[in-house]
Design goal:
The protein has 696 residues and is mainly alpha-helical. The chain has 19 helices and no strands. Helix content is 82%, strand content 0%. Helix 13 packs antiparallel against helix 14. It starts with a helix and ends in a 7-residue tail after the last helix.
Length: 696
């Protein structure tokens, strides 16, 4: 029990540190009256969207809670006297929403303060923006660890706590899809009319879609991303504890598992150690005043590497101090952490304009938008090689060390320093907003140059963070798949977490499983198509509105009139909330329908197919989108004709195509994979209890 208390203390430290960093950010100078006015408009739009989004999700949450409560008393039978899964689900939805809400509310205050700090220098601006990202990072891990641990202590049944992961995943998917549709509709719409048609600069105050674009950075890339990684974080912990419980229970007939066993609490302690390592790593991030892109990048790398090194030390200490912990578990943690680091660096290589892949995409802009798009897609496809090799090696090593429990531990190890890796990602939208505020407030050119340097770095760290998240999604989804397979009686594990000799097994050539495989492989493509079409439809509304205002508001193009920015915010909001429903519901219904119609074995095939196809597609889309974005920025640095040239227009077209790739469809696939896996785990007893409709 003392070990669990340590995990609770670590979660409390995270929230206390987040509160301290938020206090520092809010206490910084907010600039002049014009900057404050712009910042207030962004904050109002972001808050209004998040409020409407959560209210739209309320009926869905209520229905699912009622269904789970009924199943708690009829099928799940936890013998706890309360609807434990339903309660855990409800708590998960609240915690997920809270994590996104806190991070976004600090971000919409940090953007104007970052712009004001950039008036003094590059390092002050980096500190404010990164501090804001730190609030997001440590809030996510603090709430996540506390939520899982407290529910585990109360219910002492990880199958009930799995509802917490279900709640976190369902809200995360809607938040990521809805926020992604909003931000990319506003971004694509305002860029197509403003930069391509009207020829005015990015973030020009005459463009009615600029404020909506700035709002989108916060609701999509901060609140949505925070909810995304929140569910990744809790899912990795839940899968590890579930596999430890399943292995011991199956081997001992249910009598040998204690909820305070080292195998169960080690993932929580590891997550707590990661929180401390991440907090210490944030103090390493510093930049000189004359820093170029590479030095800025290394400023963030130092923090991430320091946190990773500290985690390895802390994990070794836990292995020595905690009774019953195996050094094999330590090896799993290191395997996951190293794999995540390599995946992040590989993604950075394919998306940063400091390296050849993005430079070649930028070079292709000289022959038009078509070649930019072709080369960007090819680069995205090539970028799948290193992550796949890394994840494959990590899976093999982890299984060799500790079976499927080791695979889950590798996922926890990969995500344990999320507090700082998410901080390096979440700071990017703040820097992007700061540049927009600097442009709209007509600040000195060097201010925009500083914010642009931070923004370009943010594009790379965001792509790195997405690669990191995708890698963790693969490990977590596979661990959840293993937990589901045990719960659905598809496989039997021994106490070491490996497939038991002579235990239950399945024939992969069963027709139901083959059908499940192809359906699972199809779902990521259908999901991506739905989200990209949603961005296109919502963006069309912004395009029409921006064109209308340029045409009908006298003096707008001359700078003598104010645009109606609120109208564009409302169009993006309504479009995003309308379009997010179908993809989100599909992710929940598909595994449930497969389980009841084709059976639990077919659902296992669906999960395998979805992870295989979704992992590849997510990497390709995230990398291609980041490549197109930074290829555009490379042209804007003065290469191939610079801003306003034909090459620049072609690069902008590629960036517009890449926006939904990297900020809507690609990152949402991470959640799709884990949501379907955890829905399967939660409903596994129901699938076992009934005969499938199609029983071959």
């Amino acid at each position: 029990m003392e070990s669990i208390i340590v995990a609770l203390v670590a979660g409390g430290i995270a929230l206390a540190f987040a509160a301290f960093m938020a206090w520092r950010v809010i206490g910084a100078d907010a600039g002049n009256a014009r900057m404050t006015e712009i910042g207030d408009a962004i904050r109002a739009g972001a808050s209004a969207f998040l409020r409407r989004e959560y209210m739209s999700l309320l009926p869905f949450v209520i229905v699912v809670t009622i269904v789970l409560a009924v199943l708690d008393y009829t099928v799940f039978r936890h013998n706890l006297g309360v609807p434990a899964t339903a309660i855990s689900y409800l708590v998960g939805t609240i915690c997920s929403g809270l994590a996104g809400f806190v991070g976004m509310n600090v971000a919409v205050r940090a953007n104007v303060r970052t712009a004001a700090a950039a008036m003094r220098g590059l390092n002050p601006a980096l500190r404010v923006a990164f501090s804001s990202g730190t609030v997001m990072g440590v809030t996510v891990v603090g709430i996540g660890l506390l939520g899982v641990t407290i529910l585990y202590v109360i219910f002492r049944d990880i199958s009930a706590v799995a509802g917490f992961g279900f709640g976190a995943s369902s809200i995360a998917l809607f938040a990521r899809v809805g926020g992604g549709i909003f931000t990319k509709a506003a971004d694509v719409g305002s860029d197509l009319v403003g930069k391509v048609e009207a020829g005015i600069p990015e973030d020009d105050p005459r463009n009615p879609g600029v404020i909506a674009d700035n709002v989108g950075d916060n609701v999509g890339d901060v609140a949505g991303m925070g909810a995304d990684l929140f569910e990744s974080y809790v899912g990795s912990i839940i899968s590890a504890v579930a596999l430890s419980a399943a292995a011991v229970a199956l081997a001992t007939g249910g009598a040998g598992f204690n909820f305070t066993d080292s195998q169960a609490v080690f993932p929580m302690l590891l997550a707590g150690a990661g929180i401390v390592a991440a907090i210490l790593g944030t103090f390493v991030v510093r930049s000189g005043e004359q820093a170029d892109f590479e030095r800025l990048l290394w400023a963030l790398r130092y923090g991430i590497f320091a946190a990773g090194g500290l985690l390895i030390i802390f994990a070794a200490v836990l292995t020595i101090v905690l009774p019953g912990v195996s050094w094999a578990w330590f090896g799993c943690v290191v395997a996951g952490l190293v794999a995540g680091t390599i995946i992040g660096l590989a993604t950075e290589y394919y998306t940063s304009y400091s390296y050849k892949p993005t430079q070649r995409v930028s070079e292709s802009s000289q022959t038009g938008a078509a070649t930019v798009i072709i080369s960007g897609i090819a680069t995205g496809m090539l970028s799948t090689l290193i992550p796949v090799i890394c994840i494959s090696i990590a899976i093999l090593l982890a299984y060799w060390f500790a079976g499927f429990y080791g695979v889950a531990l590798a996922g926890v190890g990969l995500l344990s320093t999320l507090g700082i890796t998410l901080a390096t990602d979440a700071y990017g939208p703040v820097a992007d907003n700061a540049g927009g505020i600097a442009e709209q407030a007509n600040l000195e050119p060097q201010v925009r140059e500083r914010t642009d340097a931070l923004d370009a770095l943010g594009n790379t760290t965001a792509a790195t963070g997405k690669g990191f998240a995708i890698g963790s999604a693969a490990l977590t989804a596979l661990a959840l798949l293993a937990a589901y397979s045990v719960s659905a009686n598809l496989i039997t594990l021994d106490p070491d977490g490996r497939l038991a000799a002579g235990g239950v097994g399945i024939n992969l050539l069963q027709p139901q499983i083959l059908v499940g495989l192809v359906i699972g492989a199809m779902l990521p493509f259908i999901f991506s198509a739905l989200t990209m079409q949603a961005v296109g439809r919502a963006a069309q509304g912004i395009v029409d509105e921006v064109r209308r205002q340029f045409r009908e508001i006298p003096g707008l193009m001359e700078g003598n009139a104010q645009p109606d920015s609120a109208r564009c915010v409302d169009i993006s909001t309504r479009g995003a909330l309308r379009e997010m429903i179908l993809p989100g519901v599909m992710a929940v219904i598909a595994p449930i329908a497969t389980g009841f119609i084709l059976g639990e074995a077919a659902l296992g095939g669906l999960l395998i197919g979805s992870v295989s196809a979704g992992f590849m597609l997510a990497i390709m889309m995230a990398s291609a989108g980041g490549t197109w974005d930074n290829a555009k920025k490379y042209v804007e640095l003065g290469n191939y004709g610079g801003k306003g040239s034909d090459a620049h227009k072609a690069a902008v077209e590629g960036d517009v195509v890449g926006d939904p790739f990297k900020d809507t469809s690609g990152p949402s696939l991470n959640i799709l994979l884990k949501l379907m896996a955890i829905v399967s785990l939660v409903f596994a007893p129901a699938f076992v209890a009934v005969q499938p409709l199609i029983n071959l």
